[in-house]
Amino acid sequence: MRTLLLIACLTLPAQQPGFNYDEAKVPAYTLPDPLVLADGTPVKDAATWRKKRRPEILELFAEQVYGQTPKTKIKIRTESLEIDKTAHNGLATRKQVRVWFGPNAAAPAMDLLIYLPNNVKGRVPAFLGLNFNGNHTAQPDPEIRVTKSWVRAKGNVASDKDRGEGASRWPVDMILKRGYAVVTAYYGDIDPDFDDGFKNGVHTLFPRSEKPNEWGSLGTWAWGLSRAMDILEKEKEIDSAKVVLHGHSRIGKAALWAGAQDERFAIVISNDSGEGGAALARRKFGETTARINTSFPHWFAGNFKQYNDKEDSLPVDQHMLIALIAPRPVYVNSAVEDAWADPKGEFLSALAADPVYRLLGMPGLLVKEHPPVEIPSIGGTIGYHIRKGKHDVTDYDWTQWMNFADLHFKKK
Ligand code: GCU
User: Fold this and answer.
1) Who contacts 163 (Cβ-Cβ below 8 Å, separation ≥6)?
2) pLDDT for 148
3) Ligand 1: which residues within 6 Å by Cβ?
4) For 225-263, what is each residue's pLDDT tens digit?
5) Residue 14: C-alpha distances to residues 9, 291, 292, 342 (Å)
6) Domain extent listing, the chain
7) Closest ligand 1 atom to the C-alpha of 249?
8) C-beta neighbour count of 74 within 10 angstroms
9) Domain 73-265 annotated CATH 3.50.50.60
10) 323: which of 70, 226, 353, 399 fits an S-S bond (Cβ 3.0–4.6 Å)?
């Protein structure tokens, strides 16, 4: 079932209208300037960015793209499910923590799977990211709790059979050996990924109006990431000032939106996030705005649909989402065989965020042209690489991310 879903996603471009793979058909476009206020005043200093332009852009994304994140605070309760200090042949301590979004047993809950490296003294930096199919699919470890959320999401039940099926995307040993903790949760625990009129997941916690600025699923996944951060702030083994937020594809879109809103994330990584993530909508290359709003009507705010085939009238483009992460380091990466996510549009978006980093006194992106395949640019505050292969997360990607994080955390 999971495999079928994945195959369906990968074959989508060939079957459906609303995409373009022809660079010659990319229209001429002008990007909105991140350094000009809505009233036309240029932003010339860091204080004006911080006090005026940044809030303005944040609000535009909330109103027009992802929907407003509810301000109401939910009382969160945690339950320790288990701790094992001998995981991964003694390399790690594995913890599983259930995070209840509300006081009673019927509240939605997210299971956090945490691996802490045993061989490191003091607080450790961590990589935090959501997974697609349940924590038990991230590693072939029989102790990982099997998610119950699939039942609600797909009418089928997750089972032992799925253990470790996504492990190639989670090279836990390699990450632990480099001194980082690994933290993950299943995105469906936060909000099951289907169009149900927003009646499940954490949507049930917040009263919903008919307004077109109500949040969609991407907004809830971003919210869930911030709640994971709340927990990491209390984990005494983790250095919460060094949490690297990463995400692949739809989860990469959510990671960028979470990193834009929540400045506690020290570094943000977008892996193949494409349309509604790192890629510029105005290029209309790969998946278009109309396509994503049709295939996934529950991901964005209702307002975003008014930009179907009208990308030029968007008051933002995705380079401004990347710019919202400034001055914190951000990393964008693409794959050659992932035209659906528009690698060039992802690179150009990272490049167009560069002036904001420079204004804030940071080195931004060190390359000005789309770099050759597997020649990563990690030296600036905006990192980028394009690798061989498909829409996926590989050891190659992880290696660059850790090199980038090492550099910015001044490890070694
Ligand atoms: C689909 C969708 C993309 C998304 C991807 C994924 O292909 O069109 O926007 O990024 O699924 O999440 O794998």
Assistant:
1) 136, 137, 139, 140, 141, 142, 144
2) 85
3) 9, 12, 249-250, 274-275, 287, 292, 295, 340
4) 999 999 999 999 999 999 999 999 999 999 999 999 999
5) 10, 13, 15, 15
6) 73-265
7) 10
8) 16
9) no
10) 353
